[in-house]
Write a structure and sequence with these properties.
462 residues, alpha+beta, five-stranded mixed β-sheet, rod-shaped
Length: 462
């Protein structure tokens, strides 16, 4: 047996030192990889939570805009119904008066008088039922309109920045109880603010136009020549339902309707005709402060001076007399004296609409304005990230250094943005419709975050 060589004895144990170094390096890499994976996973969860918060806030604001649109449509529908109630009352009173006048003549004719008497009774009861129904309907619909207008202001209060931040924080906490989120202040960008304004008094002209455009043809114009023999006579029926100013005020608080029927005969030595006899009339007024009369026919004065009847009509300059009103002045005066009145009307409501006058975002792009939302999300507790140092998986020199275990303020942050925009749904008609609060087509989408918003959000992590 031979003893080992002295050189081999000196090389024993060197692989152990190398193995320990490799083992230490592998441990460091393992802890680093673990910490990096935890940071990446936490960052992904925070980004998703912040995106969800921004999208949820955007949905809430889009729903508010769509609620304004739905309520505005409901207000318009009820205004149209009130106008139709005035129309039906006026027309029913017109039929009642016409049948009464016909019966005054027909009662002297055998058998015909009995028929006319029956028709007159039916017309009377139809008119009475119409009036009672309109009275109740007007009061109920006016209260409903005011309730809808008030609900818009409640919805507007629900979009206060504090409420939006609460929604963002709640969504973030639902993803992880250790997450927090809030919306950037509206002073940072004009597009963060509300795009709407409450239209009152004279500003309600836009709503008035929409209401009038929504009326049916019978309500807007009931003019017709029932019978006519050129250069001899004609039976002229005139009527309309109007939304007008109340007295000399700058408010839109009156619906008035009138229906007249008059016999026109030719003038002497001319084929032109003028009113000779009023055959039927009816009128209705639905107002908050009723005048108990139709508008004055001040524009008729020159015609009366020309010898066209010489009627003692009221004079004023509240609303210019239309050609329809001037056609049957005698019947129009009779209708004004026997007008049916309801004081249950609350007037055209003050509603929310896009602020085309004062909002900078709407002025820049009045056709398709964008309402933006920016949400900042952060992780305030290092335990939510769970690196190797936080979990205590290593100690001493073996513990890798991370930047998340000893942060005083927010450990990690994220910024997300969303846009509320107006677009017709894909299944709608293929046409362009500009943004408004009369169609509920407001939607939301996530959007890129501008650098200025990132810089503003960075101040919260210092």
């Amino acid at each position: 047996m031979h003893s080992p060589q002295p050189g081999r004895l000196r090389q024993r144990g060197q692989a152990l030192v190398f193995g320990l170094c490799v083992l230490l390096l592998c441990a460091l890499l393992l802890f680093f990889q673990f910490s990096s994976g935890q940071v990446s996973a936490s960052k992904l969860r925070l980004v998703n939570a912040t995106d969800a918060a921004a999208y949820s806030v955007g949905i809430w604001r889009a729903r508010a805009m769509n609620y304004y649109a739905y309520s505005n449509r409901a207000i318009i529908a009820n205004e149209v119904a009130i106008a139709q109630a005035a129309t039906m009352v006026s027309y029913a009173k017109f039929l009642e008066r016409f049948t009464d006048n016909v019966d005054d003549v027909a009662q002297f004719v055998p058998y015909v008088g009995q028929i006319s008497e029956s028709i007159r009774e039916v017309a009377y009861w139809v008119s009475q039922v119409t009036q009672y129904t309109a009275q109740a309907e007007t009061g109920a619909r006016s209260l409903y309109i005011q309730a809808l207008a008030a609900s818009q202001e409640l919805m507007f209060a629900a979009t206060h920045p504090a409420e939006l931040s609460r929604i963002a924080a709640e969504v973030a906490r639902e993803n992880d109880r250790r997450f927090f989120a809030f919306t950037l202040p509206m002073r940072l960008d004009s597009s963060f603010g509300d795009l709407t304004a409450r239209y009152e008094n004279l500003d309600r002209g836009r709503l008035k136009s929409v209401v009038l455009d929504s009326l049916d043809g019978f309500s807007t114009n009931r003019d017709a020549d029932v019978a006519e023999v050129p250069c001899l006579f004609k039976l002229a029926r005139r009527g309309a339902t109007e939304l007008i100013r109340d007295h000399d005020k700058s408010e839109l608080e009156r619906w008035q309707a009138y229906d007249t029927l008059s016999l026109h005969a030719r003038r002497t030595f001319s084929c032109s005709m003028r009113e000779r006899a009023a055959l039927g009339w009816g009128a209705a007024e639905i107002a908050r402060d009723a005048k108990n009369e139709l508008d004055a026919l001040s524009a008729l004065a020159p015609m009366m001076n020309a010898g066209d009847g010489g009627l003692d009509l009221p004079v004023g300059n509240v609303n210019a007399a239309s050609p329809s009103k001037r056609a049957n002045p005698r019947a129009y005066r009779e209708a004004s004296q026997e007008i049916w009145v309801s004081n249950q009307y609350g007037g055209i409501a003050a509603v929310r609409e896009l602020d085309f006058q004062n909002n900078e975002t709407v002025r820049r792009n009045s056709r398709f304005p964008l309402l933006r939302i920016a949400v900042v999300g952060w992780i305030q507790s290092a335990e939510a990230i769970g690196t190797a140092a936080v979990k205590g998986l290593a100690a001493g020199r073996v513990m890798p250094v991370d930047r998340f275990s000893d942060r005083g303020n927010a450990v990690m942050g994220s910024v997300s943005a969303a846009e509320v925009y107006f677009r017709r749904p894909p299944q709608a008609l293929d046409r362009t419709e500009y943004a408004s609060l009369y169609s509920p087509y407001w939607q939301v989408r996530l959007s890129p975050v501008p650098p200025a918003w990132r810089l503003a959000a960075a101040d919260y992590f210092k």
